[in-house]
Amino acid sequence: MDITEVPVSQDNKGKKKKNKKAKKKSVSQEGNGESVGVETKEEKMEKSEPAFPPTFSVSEIKNKQRRHLMFMKLKQEKRKQKMQIKKKKKKEREALGDKAPPKEVPKTIENQRVYDETTVDPEDEEIAFDEGTDEFSAYFNGLTNPKVLITTSDRPRGRTVRFCEQLATVIPNAHVYYRRGLALKRIIPQCVARNFTYLIVINEDRKVPNGLVLCHLPDGPTAHFKISSVRLRKEMKRRGKDPTEHSPEVILNNFTTRLGHSIGRQFAALFPQDPQFVGRQVATFHNQRDFVFFRFHRYIFKNEKKVGIQELGPRFTLKLRSLQKGTFDSKFGEYEWVLKRHEMDACRRKFQL
Amino acid sequence: MGDTSRLCSVWLGSETGILKGVSLARKQAFNFCNTSHLSRDQEVRALCWGDPAESELLVGSVDGTVKTFSVEKGAFTETRRCGDPADGCFAGLAALGGSSGSALVTCADCGTLRVWREDGSSEPAAELDAGKNVCRMRPSPVHPHKVATGGKENGLKIWDLERPEKPVFAAKNLRDDWLDLRRPQWVRDMAFIPDSDKVVTCTGYHQVHVFDPSTPQRRPVLEVEYGEYPLTALSLPAAGNAVVVGNTHGQIAVLDLRKGLVRGALKGLAGGVRALQCHPSQPLVASCGLDRFLRIHSLEDRKPQHKVYLKSRLNCVLLASRALEAEGGVAGATGGAQDVKEEDDEDDLWETMERVEETPKRKPTEEDEGIEEEEEELQKKSKKKRKKGKD
């Protein structure tokens, strides 16, 4: 004779789970025996959604369309709340006026970067001496002018050839030569004899350039990069006319560590030391998160504060793979820095350049 | 200057000509420079202890001069001209004690091995030719007048300085390979194994060889290959049967000499290894190279223990025989008095602050904190054990 009252709500709930339309009915019986969490949820939802137990998540609904709908509703609710909070904050800010606290800066990987102890201090004498007497000292003291030899790996295909030609227009005093299957170690003494200061070798894989070896010539360091995202001139939108023969200015951004300094100097030594401002051309090497982005622009000052820029020339991204002391000798050379593949996995905020 | 140099337990020579001393207990590096202006001629190529008491360092530079640095005074005391820069860089430097007074043995890249007397005469007492392109010369720790030399296309030769005409042992090249071609040889570094006559060498063709002069076999007794890049440095740890080698890619490995297997690798180095040295008593190995860092790894668990950034590329490293983390004896007493007062003030400061668990930072009271943290952990562990017992 003991009659245990089965709360009606449970049955309703079961039914409502199955029937979408029934959910929209206001359910007043749900007040009994439900946990607090669900009730608050009910309060929030104006359409009086059926109170699900708190462990229920949208992913448990097996029907794809209903699941999608529930998820969209959830998202809309969240967005609404976010907008409300934002509006409230904005009102508070305006109300406070001058006394408002300064705007919070969002955290990015760049501003969370782990402090690198090899960051170069501009007043450090030892590093200044080291840089003053290294392999680039002849260039930075004005004794030599850059002369660049650009070549590729053997039998290059169309895209690489066009890339080399465009690079040669961007870098003054650059000459493109066909590789003819010659060994680099034999080319290097001949280049030195003919007063070349740089050797650039563009490596090609499946008709697309994918590697760059930059070798400073008398006995300088050799840097090996991986190239990605090459955009040739005709693929660029809103580009200007072809670059002229004037020497461009060079901008090197964000090469802060000791390794970054060495690479930055290598890039700087590609271009002649005195830029011709008449040409209004600028080459930028921007380092961000260990990727070096190369862009080539022409600028014009409309008035003192406004500048217009047009992008000309090829655009590519480089990632340093190794820096070797001495001229190109991949087997027996000594490496100053080598990229170890899973280095970034340990800490995402630590960079090398 | 003297007190800073007495604190240093690790000495390094750099490419800019600066002698660097590192004190690991204090986590500080000091630069000791001879002249007021630096020049690339002074690039340090060889470093060794001047005497068994380790109170003097001999520094060999590219221009052929050998300078004596006194650890007590903290300054360079003497300079000697031991060869021309045309001879090439120093391949090795050694100081011989002995009845004849302290003599200096130098070996240049062109192969001339010279013994110099203490009286500063400009002529060497003895001279011998060790072939061309000598990469390294090392003295034997057991027999002070035996030295080993080796280089590119110049096999291992062991010389007795009292009989300089012929080497005591000259190694034969390996057998021709399966195409009957002559195998190239390039000895980069060698070491004498203590308690026996054997010599270990590492080559530029990523091989490690063990030679035994007491046997009639002149070819290597054991051959081990490691990696694909030239091995540039070698060192023997205090516990025997192993050897630590480093190559141009920054890979350092511990190899077992009993069977010729790789026991493990030491990670961290990003540039080519220029010098390795194992501590004579503790299981630690110091490595330095082109990436401008001094790294100290522990040999037991192969984990890095210390990493110090020194701003120039490093060529040679030398360890003091005493425990690396202990401060120098004399300096500890005199400098310790000042330090104790500072430490008291700092201790009060630290006690007022909350204790936060963190990785060791550069503080002079690091050792005290480390000990206190360990004690706390032990107490926590004992509490946990008690709780489990109750259950």
Description:
Chain A: Keywords: Ribosome biogenesis, rRNA processing. Chain A: It comes from Perca flavescens (American yellow perch). The complex is a heterodimer of chains A (353) and B (391). Chain A is of the alpha/beta class and 353 residues long. Chain A has helices at 8-18, 20-23, 36-44, 64-96, 125-132, 137-140, 158-170, 184-193, 258-268, 343-346, and strands at 148-152, 174-176, 198-205, 208-216, 222-231, 249-253, 281-288, 291-301, 307-325, 334-338. Chain A is globular, with a radius of gyration of 32 Å. Chain A starts with 7 loop residues before the first helix and ends in a 7-residue tail after the last helix. With 391 residues, chain B is mainly β. Chain B is built from three helices and 28 strands. In chain B, the strands form seven sheets. Chain B has a four-stranded antiparallel sheet with strand order 3-2-1-28. Chain B has a four-stranded antiparallel sheet with strand order 4-5-6-7, with no helix packed on it. Chain A binds chain B through residues 117-118, 124, 126-127, 129-130, 133, 258, 325, 331-338, 340, and chain B through 15-16, 18, 31, 38-40, 204, 229-230, 232, 248-250, 270-272, 290-292, 309, 311-313.
Layout of strands and helices, then pairs:
The complex is a heterodimer of chains A (353) and B (391).
Chain A: H1 8-18, H2 20-23, H3 36-44, H4 64-96, H5 125-132, H6 137-140, E1 148-152, H7 158-170, E2 174-176, H8 184-193, E3 198-205, E4 208-216, E5 222-231, E6 249-253, H9 258-268, E7 281-288, E8 291-301, E9 307-325, E10 334-338, H10 343-346
Parallel strand pairs in A: 1-2, 1-3, 6-7
Antiparallel strand pairs in A: 3-4, 4-5, 5-9, 7-8, 8-9, 9-10
Chain B: H1 2-7, E1 10-14, E2 19-23, E3 28-32, E4 44-49, E5 56-61, E6 65-70, E7 75-81, E8 90-96, E9 103-108, E10 112-116, E11 126-129, E12 134-139, E13 146-151, E14 154-160, E15 169-170, E16 187-192, E17 199-203, E18 207-211, E19 222-225, E20 231-235, E21 242-247, E22 252-256, E23 261-266, E24 273-278, E25 284-289, E26 293-298, E27 304-309, E28 314-319, H2 329-352, H3 366-390
Antiparallel strand pairs in B: 1-2, 1-28, 2-3, 4-5, 5-6, 6-7, 8-9, 9-10, 10-11, 12-13, 13-14, 14-15, 16-17, 17-18, 18-19, 20-21, 21-22, 22-23, 24-25, 25-26, 26-27
Region (Disordered) (chain A): 1-108
InterPro entries (chain A): Brix, IMP4/RPF1
Function (chain A): May be required for ribosome biogenesis.
